[in-house]
Each structure stands twice: as C-alpha cells, then as structure tokens.
Amino acid sequence: MKSFLTIAFLIILVAVARPQPVVAIRNVTLIDMISTAPRSGMTVIVDDGRIVGIGRSVKVSGGVTVIDGTGKFLIPGLWDMHVHALAPERAEPFFKLFIANGITGIRDMGTTADAFAMLGRLRSEIAAGKLVGPRIIAAGRIMDGARPTVPRNSIPFTGEAQARRQVRFLKRSGADFIKVYDGVSRAEYLAIVDEASKLGLALAGHVPSELTSFDASDAGQLSFEHLGNILRTCSSLDANTIEERANAVIKSSGKPNDFTAIPARIAERTKIELATFDSNKCESLYAEFVKNGTRQVPTLSTKRPLSLLDDGGFTSDPRMKYISATDVENWKPENNFFLKFRTPEFIVQKKKLYLKELELVRAMHKAGVMFLAGTDVPGAYTYPGFSLHDELELYVQNGFTPFEALQTATVGPAKFLGMEKTLGTIEKGKVADMVLLDGDPLRDISNTKRIAAVITNGRYYSRTTLDQMLSLVEDYARSH
Ligand SMILES: [Zn+2]
Asked: How many angstroms does the Cα of residue 469 sit away from the middle of ligand 1?
C-alpha cells in the first residue's frame, strides 16, 4: 500500500534535539497496541527520547526519574487526524490543550499561507523542547477550484494545467500531502491525482461534488473526511437528479437565488438522499474502501453538536473556558452561516442525517473499513485535545471495541502515515510518545480522559505540569 508521507520527511519528524533525563515507569499495566492483552507489572524505560527497555525485570539504575505506575495503564500517544490548529493566535494554546490531553500528533487539514509559513519554526521549537506541542503533519492550503468555500485557506486554480502547477507549488512550499475539496472538477481532480503521485504526495480530504466515492477511492485518495459524499454515492438516484429535485423544491419557495436558502437546499438534498438510500450499493462501496485501503475520518465529535445543537447542552460545556472569546463568538449560531439561516426542516433533516451517519459508521466498521480518529477542531463546540476522547467514545458507542477505538488514534495513524517503525505502539526502540492513565481504557474507553502523565519525545509531563498548562490556556482564552 502507498504510504502517506515520504521517507525524507519522516527523518525530520522523529528527530530529537537534545538529551533528555532517563525516566522509568515502574509496575505499570502496558497496553502496547500490538497485543490486545494488557501486560501488568511492567517497567518501561525512556532515554534520549526513545523507549530503551520494556520488561518485568529490567534494571533501573541510579539517577533515573522513577515514576510509580502501580494501578496505572500506559498507552501510546494519541493522534488527532483532522484539526485546523495552524494559525498564529491558535497554535500555542491549542498545542498545550493537545499535550494536556495526551494528543502527541496532529494532522492539520488546511490553513492560510502565512500560518503555514510558521510550520518549520514550530516543528523545530517543539523538537528542541522550547515549545510544548505535538508532532505536526500539514496540508498547507486546500485545493478547491476557482471559487473555494474557504478562500483564506485555499489556493485557487482553474483547469488542469493550473491545478498541476499548484500541486508543484504546494510541494515546494512544504506541504506533506494534498487536501482536495468539493469544488474541484473531475478533470482537475484527475490532474491533481496524477501530479501528486509523480511528486510522491498523497491525497486526502473531501470527495469533490463531481465525483462519486467509488471514483475517489479508485483514484487513490487515501482519506475521506466527514463521511461526505457517501450518502450521495449510495443513493439510487444519480447526483444530477438529486440536485434537480432539490432545486425544484427551493424554486417553489420563491427565493431560489437567495444565499439564505442554502440551509433549506441542504435539507432538501439530505431528505432525498436519505429516502433513496440503497444499502446494496453502499455495501459494494465499503468493499471498495477495504480493497483500496481508503480510510474514513468521520469527525463525529464535530458533527454531533452541529446536528443536535437545538437539543441544547452544547453551549454550556465547561470546556468552553479554554476557548478564546474570538472562537466562542465564531461558534455562536447567529454567526455560523449554516446555523444562522437554519429552517425547521433543516433541524429535522440534520438530526436524521447524523443518526444515519452513525449507522454508516457501524456498517463500515463491520465491513472492515479502516477509520482514523479526527475532530475538525475548532469547529463549533469542539475542543482541542478534549474532543478526541469524545470521538473515541462515539466509536465505542457505535460498534468498536475499546481496543479498535484506540487503534484509530495510535497504530492506525502511524501505519497510515508510514511511520509505524517509529510510532504508534509501545516497543523498544520506538519514539517515546505515551500516555499514562489512571483507569483501564480497554474496560471503559472514557478512561483515556483520566490522564496521570504524558510523555512526548521522551519528555515527561506530570499531572501537575499538565494542570499548569491548562490554566495558562484558560488565562489566554480570557484575554483573547
Ligand atoms: Zn476540516
């Protein structure tokens, strides 16, 4: 299977800048993510950023920081595979929230040119221990055709030749992969696939509206975000017919060209797609995903508040204290485009859609489709670091075993990124990214939230240090 990242890049990513004090975690229960059986009474030794010893009778010499792991559980560091954290005002508070929540790796899914230019500096400061933060892989700017949905995060282009040129430009400017979006035409998409593969860049993102999920999976797009396009592909109607029927309803409403009618149009489209769902077609789509190794990043933790907002409870989440006033303002329904103009029908259909999407997750998981945990922070009422744990809970509520849920955030991302030799499991020789828990996550997945300590790049952060980080973020949020 094609790997997501190139080898040259991996060497940079795992580089450790300076020697770390030796740490030994004693008498801990190890969940190494290789075996499904936890091993109790283990000692794990970390030296110079790496795991150098694991066993029941490894010797711990003097001058070593010894951590008592009695009654605790050790898992690999977690990845959030869908975030938007690269922004000058976001990076530092978000990074602290990630580390405080055991998220030691992130995949950034699109940012501005200016923010992307900070990436090199952020990475080296994190590797050197000057800045607290996770490993970062990043798309840079998104490819979404001539009139992108999010202009500030996108690099515009028209036609195949320009699409190819922008792929080459993104490669030169340091993009780790190419993120595609809804507005790319079929011809442009195929040009992007071809150019990216020549440059060794993988493709991830939305499935463009002109393509089916079969097309994108067969073209080699390695990750699909937000379950987008799947219901449309699984409809017994073709995409044009769905669009025509939705348009006809909107037209009869008397304001067909009004942008405020977009939520109503979405509601119509959703209603048609749900009513014409063909489960046989979807079963063969899942088989295609399995055959091609296409990963799904459903971002349920961001879909839930957006779909169930009117049920209440989301706007009074205690974790809002970590979110800057600016972001809180952006989250408010009256400032969110889709929510601002939502109609009663939109609210009903959104909820039905969410329940259907949970059903898709269960069916795909059963069919053997691979998943990667991602949150889409900072989408409305989604919290950097914290929401990844909600995402894992949602997987367990929808048919995953706790072990399988943990795979989506540990060994799954490592394999997907082609980094399984250095990350993703707890093994001798691997980079020391680990989370020490106060409860067994295989018994109850919500125990991933009970973090006793985090080790990233061999650096040990105790609960006290993590709490200090959280209160710094709280202070920052209050003043921004
Ligand atoms: Zn996103």
From this structure: 25
